[in-house]
Amino acid sequence: MQSTLFLHFITCVDHAYIDARGNVVGGSYHPNFEVTGEVESKENVVVDFSRVKKEIKGAIDDKARGFDHKLWIIHGLSKVSYAINDVEQTILIQTPTTTLRMPCNAVKIFDSEWHGNMDKTFEAEANAYLTAELSKLHPDLNITVKTQNTSTCFSHSAQPFM
To answer: pTM of the full predicted structure?
Structure first.
């Protein structure tokens, strides 16, 4: 028998991304998660609630591969060129409006393409990432991410991004 666990308010994902004009834009998400899987016969649950909650938060907040407190580069959206220096573990980012040199772990380069809006793009990227990460620990679980944009995004020029 399958069942679904609903997880809310696990973490807040504060981020910035490079938009289609090359501006750095900030925002926040409070993602909601659905964890679906076979109910264990021993404990009669899909997975231990507190364990999976910590695992999801740990993956989202991961300093090397996570989403929180990162600058996002999104293929198909971000007007950017970048070069990674593997020796120094830095990335040089150039847009029409700015040049940045940052540690590689301060940037999240999305594998997913732009889905037409930020919510769908983040959901697709987070779903793929969390499914891969948590399937290492729980091969029978299916993870779904639903996001809620919790702030209006502003560019560095303080103009609302719509």
So the answer is: 0.85
